[in-house]
Amino acid sequence: MAELCVCSVLVTGANRGIGLGFVQHFLRMPKPPQWIFATCRDPKGQRARELQNLASKHPNLVIIALEVADPASIKAAAAKVGEHLGDSGLNLLINNAGVVKPKMLDAETLEDMTETYTTNTAGPLLMGQAFLPLLKKAAQGCPGSGLSCSKAAIVNMSSIGGSIASFFGWDMMQVTSYRCSKAALNMLSKCQSLAYKEHGILCVALHPGWVQTDMGSAAGHTPPVTVDDSVQGMLKVLSSLSEKETGAFLDWEGKAIPW
């Protein structure tokens, strides 16, 4: 397997679940990134305890406060990351932070729909905008005209729940606001891939599988995929992507998912 080789990576929602899994895997790489930026809402809080422990042992891990539903917080985080990186850019932006409201269709509300969209769809849009200068800088620093995740990439953590062609899990959890937000995120990923291609930035939407996390278990069922297997699979997929896959919707094993 080709090892994903990045100098810098940022993961949102990194204090638990898949986000924390990404951080752990990056730290364990034979050649770990020079900078791993792990963001969460409350870096000093109880829920970030595991991240804090890791940061105390790994000087290349920087924890940054970030609320993806707050444009001012995103701008402040981008400025902080820029200070650390100096003249070098950001190779990989993983938009992983997300929310789900486990409700039946009849119980969905404007508030739930708005909050879910703001975090799951508008958040990755604003993150892409704020970190575009750093991603462009990374792309310019890599020779060659091709696209790859080692050069500069935005990875949006989507879900098969956002596939309009699939009704996966409908009997277990309708979660309409979540499904709509992820379908919209898929369109955002396609738009980003078209707009950012000229800057040398690859963009992709990834379904991590149905994973054993707090969010994955929200419907009261035990998901079949472990965080470890999911993250390992996704990193393998990311290491193999090229301009052919920019704008694609893939799962953690590299299979294309119907829109």
Give the helix/strand layout.
Elements (H helix, E strand, L loop, with lengths): L7 E4 L5 H12 L6 E6 L8 H9 L3 E5 L5 H15 L6 E4 L14 H31 L12 E5 L18 H21 L5 E6 L19 H14 L8 E3 L8
Helix pairs in contact: 1-6, 3-4, 4-5
Tell me about the largest β-sheet: 7 strands, parallel
Shape call: globular
Rg of Cα set: 17 Å
Strand content range: 5-15%
Give helix % range.
Answer: 25-40%
Total helical elements:
6
- List the helices and strands in order: EHEHEHEHEHEHE
The N- to C-terminal Cα distance equals 28 Å
State the total count of DSSP E strands: 7
Poorly predicted segments = none
Q: What topology, given as strand order, has the largest sheet?
A: 3-2-1-4-5-6-7
Mean pLDDT: 94
Structural class: alpha/beta
Essential attributes:
single chain, 7-stranded parallel sheet, alpha/beta, 7 strands, 6 helices, globular, about 260 residues
Describe the protein.
The protein is of the alpha/beta class and 259 residues long. The chain contains 6 helices and 7 strands. It has helices spanning 17-28, 49-57, 71-85, 110-140, 176-196, 227-240; strands at 8-11, 35-40, 61-65, 92-95, 153-157, 202-207, 249-251. The protein has a 7-stranded parallel β-sheet, with helices on both faces. β4, α4 and β5 form a beta-alpha-beta unit. α1 packs across α6, α3 runs parallel beside α4 (110-140) and α4 packs parallel to α5 (176-196). The two termini are 28 Å apart. The model has no long low-confidence stretch (mean pLDDT 94).
